[in-house]
Design brief:
With 258 residues, the protein is an alpha/beta fold. It has eight helices and ten strands. It has a six-stranded parallel beta sheet with strand order 7-6-5-8-9-10, sandwiched between helices. α2 packs across α3 and α2 crosses α7. The chain is globular. The protein starts with a strand and ends in a 19-residue tail after the last helix.
C-alpha cells in the first residue's frame, strides 16, 4: 500500500489454454481494449494484483510510457535485431519512435525513420535518428531489417522492398485489418515477414528497466496533457491532425507533479 506502480494491461489465463508465452494466450484480454473491462479513463480502476509492476522511483508520467515502450521491446526482440545492423522504421508516431529508441539501446548501428509529417521527422532528427519521407525510401541503400509501425498497403510495400535479400520485416502497426503485400519481393528475395503483438511480461519489465537506467529518451515523447473534460477533444484533434503530439496523457488531477 502506497507503493508507486503501473500495471501490465495484458491478462492471460493461468495456462489452461496451453500457451507458453503470455501474449500467445488464446484467452488474452487487454484492460482498456476489451469492452467488458473498465479502462483507465476513470478516477479508479481495479486490476489483478499480479499485473502490478513497481515503478522503482520512476515518475508517474514516465511510468505511463512503459506500455508503448514494451511494444517496442517485443518488436525488436521478434526481429532478432543484432548489434551493428541498420534498420528502417515506417511510421514516426509513438510506437515508431519507441522502436527507434529501443533499437538504439540494443546496439543498432543505424536507425532511419520514414514519416510524412515534418514535425515527427524533426523530432526524430533532434534525437539523433536519420529521417526520410516515404517517397524517398526507395532511393536509400537497403536495410538489414525494417519495422512497419503503420500497417497499410503503401507502407507495407515500401518497407518490404527496402530491406536486403534475406532480411526481415516486422509488422507492428495495424492501420488496416487486411492489406496487400508485394509477393514477388517476398518470395524471390527470400525476405522474412513476421508479426509482433503487444508484449510478454518480461518485455514489459525490460521496458521499465530501460527507462529506469536512462537508456531511453522518454520525457520528450510526452506532449501536452489533458484532463477528463478534454479527452474527447484530444481524440478529435489527433484524428484531424490538429494536434501532432506523440503521446497525450490524461490526468485525474492527482500527483501531476510526480
Amino acid at each position: 500500500i502506497g507503493e508507486r506502480v503501473t500495471f501490465n494491461p495484458a491478462i492471460s489465463c493461468l495456462g489452461s489454454c496451453g500457451h507458453g508465452i503470455e501474449n500467445h494466450c488464446q484467452e488474452l484480454k487487454v484492460i482498456g481494449v476489451d469492452p467488458k473491462i473498465q479502462g483507465a479513463f476513470a478516477d479508479y480502476i481495479s486490476v489483478p494484483s499480479n499485473r502490478l509492476v513497481a515503478l522503482n522511483g520512476i515518475s508517474f508520467q514516465l511510468g505511463a510510457c512503459i506500455e508503448p515502450m514494451a511494444v517496442a521491446v517485443q518488436a525488436v526482440r521478434r526481429s532478432e535485431l543484432q548489434p551493428g545492423e541498420s534498420i528502417l522504421i515506417s511510421g514516426g508516431g509513438m510506437i515508431g519512435q519507441c522502436i527507434a529508441q529501443v533499437a538504439r539501446a540494443e546496439g543498432c548501428a543505424s536507425v532511419t525513420i520514414s514519416e510524412s509529417m515534418s514535425s515527427r521527422r524533426d523530432f526524430a532528427g533532434s534525437l539523433g535518428f536519420n529521417t526520410t519521407t516515404p517517397e524517398r525510401v526507395s532511393e536509400l541503400p537497403k536495410f538489414d531489417k525494417a519495422f512497419d509501425a503503420v500497417g497499410i498497403d503503401a507502407t507495407a510495400a515500401a518497407t518490404i522492398s527496402a530491406i536486403k535479400k534475406g532480411g526481415t520485416v516486422c509488422f507492428v502497426g495495424l492501420g488496416l485489418p487486411s492489406i496487400s503485400v508485394p509477393l514477388f519481393e517476398i518470395v524471390v528475395a527470400e525476405r522474412n515477414i513476421i508479426g509482433s503483438f503487444a508484449y510478454t511480461d518480461e518485455a514489459f519489465e525490460r521496458a521499465r528497466d530501460l527507462i529506469l537506467d536512462n537508456k531511453l529518451t522518454v520525457q520528450e515523447l510526452i506532449g501536452q496533457g489533458t484532463d477528463f473534460e478534454g479527452v474527447a477533444t484530444a481524440f478529435s484533434d489527433l484524428a484531424s491532425s490538429k494536434r501532432t503530439d506523440l503521446k497525450v496523457l490524461m490526468s485525474t488531477g492527482e500527483h501531476e507533479q510526480n
